[in-house]
Amino acid sequence: MKALITGGAGFIGSALVRHVVGALGWSAVVVDKLTYAGHLSSLAPVAQAPGYAFAQVDICDRDALDAVFARHQPDVVFHLAAESHVDRSITHAAAFIETNLVGTFNILEASRAHWQKLSGPAKERFRVVHVSTDEVYGSLGEEGLFHETTPYDPRSPYSASKAGADHLASAWFHTYGLPVLISNCSNNYGPYHLPEKLIPLTILNALDGRRLPVYGDGTNVRDWLYVDDHVAALCLIAEKGEAGRCYNVGGRNERQNIEVVHRICDLLDALAPKEHSHRELIEFVTDRPGHDRRYAIDASRLENELGWRARETFETGMERTVRWYLDNEAWWGPLRAAGVGVKRQGLPA
Ligand code: NAD
Between helices 314-327 and 257-271, what is the axis angle to 10°? Predict the structure, then answer.
């Protein structure tokens, strides 16, 4: 298999590249603009592999995209490139509209042009997996789960731009027959996660003895998914999923934000003890504007139809993650030194 992976230098994209090139032995070309969120150091484990190629391309540049498709002739496109940080979308929405909407349009059109030139088994086999988020469904109350049939109700500039991109992907299936599949997943965590997001930020601030900011009263709920479980789901969707269908991906690991932070503190108390418990560093700060209350995913379609199961529980995945950050300062040290995650984003002027 030859994969074209947009956003392959980001958190989830790099995990996908490391898996398909490193473990499955596929060829993969990474298409990435290398914004503040993209880091070639996340691809270092596979950078010398024979099947790996990298193209520094902005997905808003259609000509450059066409050249990558012509050169690499992919069997499958995994589209992950996006502006992905909700807090940044509150203060810098324009980039979200450009990359998440215009960029997705370009990926669909470049994929369609490529697919139309294929014939026989190559045309049959071709797939586009559009990677999206459960945030398109809005916010849940205390009860209930997001299903694939839940109406879209995005609340932030980020989730609105992803919702629009999902509608484009769906339209390209219905209008042109392009074999697109959509995945909507819950919050991912794991190695190589940029330290501006809750889990790595908490781990690294705690190691530094800095305050651990928790938004609002800390009771917002997210459904945590270990990134390698997500990667396995994406490969399964590409290989066995039905074109035109959506698949929710979630780890059945609902936790309040404060529970997540407590778990990290307790793991660090055991693995990197200090004089006082890391919990003493917790500080409740002004909530994110429009902070969705609760997300929770029903992943039964993916489980029943494609046989996917999350392998990590929240406890095992979190321990792996904390250990990874303890062992990999060479990756996150330069990012912290450059100020990533040090200043809070997303408080409108
Ligand atoms: P990320 O921010 O870590 O990585 C995004 C990557 O896209 C970066 O490498 C960046 O350089 C690249 N990129 C941004 N703009 C680009 C452009 N115009 N052209 C080319 N490349 C560009 O994101 P992530 O957390 O790995 O998320 C990947 C995908 O999964 C996104 O589409 C996101 O919406 C979706 N998603 C993420 C989560 C999560 O918890 N992280 C949850 C649900 C869905």
Answer: 50
